[in-house]
TrEMBL record:
This is Gnk2-homologous domain-containing protein. Gene3D superfamilies: Gnk2 domain, C-X8-C-X2-C motif. The keyword Membrane does not apply. PROSITE patterns: GNK2. The lineage of its organism: Eukaryota, Viridiplantae, Streptophyta, Embryophyta, Tracheophyta.
Length: 144
C-alpha cells in the first residue's frame, strides 16, 4: 500500500479510507465454532503483531475448527506505530468489520491506511515458522 499526505502521517492512526473484501464462499458446518476459532486467532495475531518492533509489525497464524477445516490469517500494522496504536487499530477492525458471531464467510480482507487483516480457509502466505538453518561456520584460519 502506498500512502502519502501533505501532513505528517508517521505514527498517526487512521482507519479511513478502508476496504473490506469478503469471500463469496460460506462456512456451512459448525459456523459458531468457526466464528469462535476465528475470533481467538485474530486476537492472538493482534497481540503478536502489535508487539513487533519499528521494522515489522506483522503476524501470521492458523487454527482448525473441528474436522471441517483450517483458518489461516495475518495481521499487520504500519511499522511506525506504537504497540498501543497497532493493538487499537487491529482491534477496531476485528470488532467493527468482523463482528463476533456474524460472519460465515470463509475469507475476508480488511485494508486500511494504518493496519490490515486477512483470513482465508487456505494457506495464502509463505509459512516462515521454521527458521532456516544458519550457514555452516568457516573453518578456522591460521597455522596448524
Amino acid at each position: 500500500m502506498l500512502r502519502y499526505a501533505n501532513r505528517t502521517i508517521l505514527g498517526s492512526q487512521e482507519e479511513q479510507p478502508s476496504s473490506t473484501l469478503r469471500s463469496t464462499k460460506k462456512v456451512t458446518n459448525n459456523v459458531n465454532q468457526f466464528n469462535q476459532v476465528l475470533g481467538t486467532l485474530l486476537n492472538r495475531l493482534r497481540n503478536d503483531a502489535s508487539k513487533g518492533d519499528s521494522r515489522l509489525k506483522f503476524a501470521t497464524g492458523n487454527d482448525s475448527y473441528g474436522s471441517f477445516g483450517s483458518i489461516y490469517a495475518f495481521a499487520q500494522c504500519s511499522p511506525d506505530f506504537s504497540q498501543r496504536n497497532c493493538f487499537n487499530c487491529l482491534g477496531d477492525f476485528i470488532s467493527e468489520k468482523i463482528p463476533s458471531g456474524s460472519t460465515n464467510n470463509t475469507g475476508a480482507q480488511i485494508l486500511g491506511p494504518s493496519c490490515k487483516l486477512r483470513y482465508e480457509d487456505y494457506l495464502f502466505y509463505n509459512d516462515v515458522s521454521s527458521p532456516s538453518s544458519p550457514p555452516p561456520s568457516a573453518p578456522p584460519s591460521g597455522k596448524y
